[in-house]
Amino acid sequence: MKNYDIAIVGGGMVGAALALSLSDTSLRIVIIDQHSLKPGLIAENAPYSPRVSALTEASVQLFKRLGVWDTMRFQRVCPYRHMRVWDGEGTGEITFDAGSVGYPQLGYIVENPVIRASLLKGLEDTSVDLLEASGELSFRPLEAGYEVVPEKGQAFHCQLLVGADGAESAVRKWAGIPQSQKDCLHHAIVTTVEIEKHHQDTAWQIFLDTGPLAFLPVPDQDGKHYCSIVWSLLPERADAVIALDEDAFCKALGRAFEQRLGTVIRTDKRYRFPLKHRHARHYYRQGIVLVGDACHTIHPLAGQGVNLGLQDVEALSRELIRACERDDDIAGKHILGRYQRHRKGANMTMLAAMDGFQHLFHADDLAIRWLRNTGLNLANDSHLIKECIVKQAMGISETLVGKE
């Protein structure tokens, strides 16, 4: 039976990034996933994926250190240099510009399959084992570590078990790690739409009484303009919108967006999923540790979901590399505890902030409406406030400002 130091359950963006971050160490690592782990790169003219991520500068710097950023750019990425956010029920509006912090862009919109394929490509020249296992996994505690048993295939042992297997994490559930969960009261409709006017290298977001709507820039194709959309709606409204035919959907979407980019010409296939805030009460337990969506999920209105997961990767890999260099116990409570202390507060702060934003913009009280519109306009007039918001959103520090 094969023995590994670390078994990462889940070969998505976060799991693959963690494996690649640790690949230069002496640690024996395996990724196990139910889906293909072959790095099928995305062709330039391939259909857009409905799932995209808004990568911050901090996340891009991580991918550069891992040597995969050029692979992403070779496929398809779209920088955005500006953001425009406004209240669809009032007059409040705020704009952000990358130039305010000395960067050429605020971030990049990148399709999730592009990110994952690039990370898997980067793992090809490493000693990390990639194991595709259909069916459910089961786990068995050992005297030191765990046995991982695929439904089909050979079992193996590991010293540290990492749950990077998404919001419905089998690792978290089996470990009995409790989580808090809160329904965001919205369902998100995601797709790619062709628009009449160019997106102006801008990420757009309008707050409506039914929920936020985001238009995120993606690269043009054949002289045509496109955006990825995330339309958050109350469930009953989402029922009606998802049932519309393409022409009616495009018209409804254009009206909701105030035609800021002209006519919505056509749409790709639409997908829908419920939005929930989740947060694990503990990030580790007896040689098991959680990262990414297995540990926390967040409303997409700020585009921070995968970036939080990548920050988990940086914190955990730093602790594990330090332990490896000192010949310390990588599954030790003192190692995993430091990871939890570093990440738990930051993740909880972001969850609380998104919860506050949701309530602020969902409130129907006239006084609160006046307050949020006044606040947006006042913030828009303050260079200092906007600069602080931009730096926080980009995940950059003072020492990074102005650097590529």
Automatic annotation (TrEMBL):
InterPro entries, per the entry: FAD-bd, FAD/NAD-bd_sf, Ubi_Hdrlase_CS, UbiH/COQ6, UbiH/COQ6_monooxygenase
Cofactor(s) required, per the database record: FAD
Record pathway: Cofactor biosynthesis; ubiquinone biosynthesis
GO molecular function: monooxygenase activity
Keywords: FAD, Flavoprotein, Monooxygenase, Oxidoreductase
SUPFAM superfamilies for the chain: FAD/NAD(P)-binding domain (SSF51905)
UniProt superkingdom: Bacteria
PANTHER family named among the record's database cross-references: UBIQUINONE BIOSYNTHESIS MONOOXYGENASE COQ6, MITOCHONDRIAL (PTHR43876)
Family (UniProt): Belongs to the UbiH/COQ6 family.
Name of the protein: FAD-dependent monooxygenase
Source organism of the structure: Endozoicomonas euniceicola
